[in-house]
Amino acid sequence: MSTYKNSSLPIAERVDDLISQMTLGEKILQMVYGAPAIERLGVPEYNWWNEGLHGVGRAGIATVFPQAIGLAAIWDHELIHTIATAISDEARAKHHEALRHDVHSIYTGLTYWSPNINIFRDPRWGRGQETFGEDPYLTASLGVAFVRGLQGDDPGYLKLVATPKHFAAHSGPESIRHSYDVRVSEQDLRETYLPHFEACIREGGAYSVMGAYTRLNGEACCASPTLLQKLLRDEWGFDGYVVSDCWAIIDIYASHKIVDTPEEAAALAVQNGCDLNCGSTYPYLFGAVAQNLISEEVLDQSLKRLFTARFKLGMFDPPEEVPYAQIPYEIVNCKDHQELALQAARKSIVLLKNEEDLLPLSKDIASIAVIGPNADYVESLLGNYHGTPADPTTPLAGIRRKLSPSTKIYYAQGSLVADGVLPLEPVPTTYLYPSNSQAAEHGLNAEYFDNPNFEGVPVRQQLDRNVDAFWKGISPITGKWGDGFSVRWSGYFCPPRDGRCKIGVNGFNAYKLYLDDELIVEFEDTHDHHTMSKDVELVTGRFYKLQLDYASQGIDSRAQLLWAWPDVDYLSPALEAAGKADVVVAVMGLTPLLEREELEVDADGFLGGDRADICLPAPRNSCSNNSMLWANRLFWSCRTAVPWQYSGQKIISRPSSKPGIRGIRGDALADVLFGDYNPAGRLPITLYKSLEDLPPLKITGWPVALIATSTANRSILLGSVSVIQTFTSATCTWTNQKAAAGDSISISVEVTNTGDRAGEEVVQLYTRQYVAPPRPIKELKGFRRISLEPGECKTVTFTLFVNQLAVYDEDLIAAVHPGKVEIMVGNSSEHLPLTGSFEIMGQTTGIQDNKVFFSQVHVK
Question: What stretches of 616-670 adopt beta strand conformation (E)?
């Protein structure tokens, strides 16, 4: 037996043995995310790319939890840990099921590029929805819990590898991320953009980190000696591996212009600590070695880090020795996980306003109108980097399930999500024919191949009513997950009207659509579902020859033939529905059609996946505009509740209530609307009054050092909430008036539910220091979500460590400064009725050597 295969030996010895047997070429190719097999050594193929932002992503059916910004709104690190544990259970189960089918492709591995813990300070950033919000303390607490849940607690093996990203100070904008140089002061970097990364490494034990596309103070983040060596390894003791963001190494020479060639870029990145390349640049290390730009010994260091991770995951050990290898595949989307997702969706709902006690609505209501572009649109629920839900529930469906058959429910889309942005829908079977005859049966001829390349003869031929195929990760040929296949649909398309129509396809991995033998759209990608469409002029009654070729590798198979017609009157049906209803539920907000990573979208107020404005989109002839004047135009005669799916910031001036969710469970929303669940989520971001309160958006990007805890120019602050029932808090008490570095202060507060229904409260602890350098007005230092029955009282005790109050001095050394510290306790950053203070005695430096990240919280 080769030394590296002997599981009784230390991992370091096994890794050294394996690497010593590799050729230079084999070593280099193991540093690319799609690492090939080394058959002569018994090393299997491995793809390092996997996603688990809010559930196992892009690998077929999985439990889908609320998007990350929704998880943050729960303000409960223990629940976040439970959710991450469920995600890692499903990830392990899928991985071992893939191995049983000899599948080693993308999205089947154990190295997960999550969580995204960038600070979401500017609401215009389209990827802010992927984060835990604007506050470093909240982000650190949730990030550590998420990392631990992914990686497990076994002393010998990692369950998964978690990868906090994007290191560091990456908070948009998307349109210039490949060339942008983020300029941040050293103090702001240390106190705003690094603490949560440090916590995830030192407290969470994250075994991987992903670098950012941008430069930071002149250094490319994926080749930064300051970030990857000085901070990450030297100061924080990180011993894992670093992966580049995807194709970010290209930016080092092509966009940032730091070096001239791909060989130089690859060498620079590896020398400075970037071990794995998501992209295509590291094969140029062959030339870099030949040009003496880098030595094989330096490559070996990266190889050791990478293979240490694979050994820690148990990839070279017998499955019976790896506890996580025994997790059954049946755990994927199991009943317990579905209930957990429902619980998370409920807990993520934030009630910001409830004028005239509109909520809860009566289930005996005679009529209700559900209006809005997101009311019955599943894609609007999914967010980014999502899995495939087995049974998604839209808000409309959730409301229908909640009410009796006697209730009249009126639905109208009301508007587009934005001008020119048409949500495509499957082409109905009514307009599809297998031949160019009106007498023919509706549908398309379908030929199914047992491979993804249309090779050989079809194994099955049939008439498919339409193309809206969702195989849930299971091959329609073999019935197995991970088996590749291809389908060719052919026939004719006969449009119902003249004019311009947008026609396209949604699918993963590859497709081609032909209309009258002309290639209309084409796409091939192994990374994500993608929709491609084209505007075509059509004539009613004419038969257009149609062919759609779809190929799937079998991991997350879906194919849809889609269309959309512009110039539809959405407003009139909405007005009619509202006029008939006693109550209107208007489901507003954004969708992945408008905001996500580096998105090309042609709509006013949106730019490259980001937003140039923070108002709701203003589609013409619709039920919404920038000032939400529809509240007067459309719903003047009835009561209105306005849920909206939030990922960042939308200005809403007139709605009665706004329970924002970014989940997959419309039934959770219905539970809140009709009183079956009492919402207690808290905002993880600040809402601004207007665009005028933000710095100008320039082509050079926005400032990234906004002070989140300042009260200037804000309408709603971090953690804000409205509640259906009331809670009262007694005067807080603390243990001592004076303290020094290394000491702690115990702060207790009694919380009583004075309402008539059970509910939850989020008790939050803030501090303010009166020292130099100047501190923010308020800094979050602790929180705890508690449940209370009517009349119940609980005591929440925070143990605040003085070392948490360290600030960086001019020499960038963390120091506890003498002076007054104000204590503030309440249920949001703007409602802190309980106050006190203590004094720090003396000054102590070098706090980073024994840093304490979090306060301890106990509840009695």
Answer: 639-641, 644-645
Of the residues 245, 419, 483, 610, only one is catalytic, namely: 245
Q: Beta strands 111-112 and 208-210: pairing type?
A: unpaired
How far is Cα of residue 54 from the mean position of the Cα atoms in its chain?
6
HEC string of 539-551 equals CCCCCEEEEEEEE
Spatial distance between the Cα atoms of 30 and 304, rounded to a whole number of angstroms: 11
Question: How many whole angstroms separate alpha carbon 743 and alpha carbon 508?
Answer: 56
Quick: pLDDT tens for 726-750. 788 777 888 878 999 999 999 999 9
Burial status of residue 516 (CB atoms within 10 A of its CB: 0-12, 13-18, 19 or more): middle
State the Cα–Cα distance between residues 666 and 671, nearest whole angstrom: 9
Known catalytic residue at 245 = yes
Give the C-alpha separation, 378 to 388, whole Å.
Answer: 11
Report the sign of the C-alpha dihedral through residues 118, 120, 125, 130, in that order.
positive
Please work out, in degrees rounded to the nearest 5, the angle formed at the alpha carbon of residue 228 by the alpha carbons of 226 and 229: 70
**Does residue 293 contact residue 277 with C-beta atoms inside 8 Å?**
no
**3-state class of 518 per DSSP?**
strand
CB-based contact 593:600 (threshold 8 Å): no
- What is the residue type of 744? S
Q: Determine contact, residues 84/669, Cβ cutoff 8 Å.
A: no
> How many CB atoms within 10 Å of residue 75?
29
Task: Report whether 717 contacts 828 (CB < 8 A).
Answer: yes
The dihedral region occupied by 115, where left means phi > 0, alpha psi between -120 and 50, and beta the remainder, is beta
DSSP secondary structure code for residue 32 in this structure:
B
What's the confidence (pLDDT) of residue 652?
Answer: 36
Spatial neighbors of 427 by CB under 8 A, at least 6 apart, are 466, 467, 493, 503, 561, 562, 563
Q: Could you tell me where the DSSP H helices lie in 237-330? A: 248-254, 262-271, 285-290, 296-312
- Going by C-alpha positions, the residue among 305, 302, 82 that lies closest to residue 785 is 82
Contacts 24+ apart (CB under 8 A), 804-809: 804/852, 804/853, 804/854, 804/855, 805/767, 805/769, 805/781, 805/840, 806/741, 806/847, 806/848, 806/851, 807/191, 807/769, 807/771, 807/773, 807/775, 808/186, 808/187, 808/190, 808/191, 808/773, 809/773, 809/845
pTM: 0.95
Burial of 636 (0-12, 13-18, 19+ CB in 10 A): exposed
Among residues 241, 245, 249, the alpha carbon closest in space to that of 266 is found at 249
State the Cα torsion 663-666-667-671 to the nearest 10°: 80
Tell me what pLDDT residue 640 has.
62
Of 624, 611, 522, the residue nearest 570 (C-alpha): 624
Q: Distance (Å, rounded) from C-alpha 5 to C-alpha 340?
A: 39
Q: What is the mean pLDDT of each run of 10 residues along the chain (860 residues)?
A: 92 98 98 98 98 96 94 97 98 96 94 97 90 95 98 98 97 91 90 95 98 97 98 97 98 98 98 98 98 98 98 97 97 96 94 85 94 88 89 92 95 87 90 92 97 97 95 89 94 95 93 97 85 94 97 91 90 90 87 86 86 75 40 42 56 32 68 93 86 65 37 53 71 85 94 92 94 82 96 95 88 87 92 92 81 92
Rounded distance between C-alpha atoms, residue 580 and residue 587, angstroms: 18
C-alpha distance from residue 674 to each of 370, 381, 391 (Å): 14, 20, 22
What are the structure tokens assigned to 136, written together? 């470093």
CA distances from 135 to 332, 468, 718, 766 (A): 33, 42, 8, 12
DSSP reduced 3-state for 703: coil
Nearest to 442 by CA among 503, 517, 492: 492
Other C-beta atoms closer than 10 Å to the C-beta of 600 total: 8
Q: What is the DSSP letter of 325?
A: G
Q: Pull the structure tokens for residue 590.
A: 């954004």
State the pLDDT at residue 653. 30
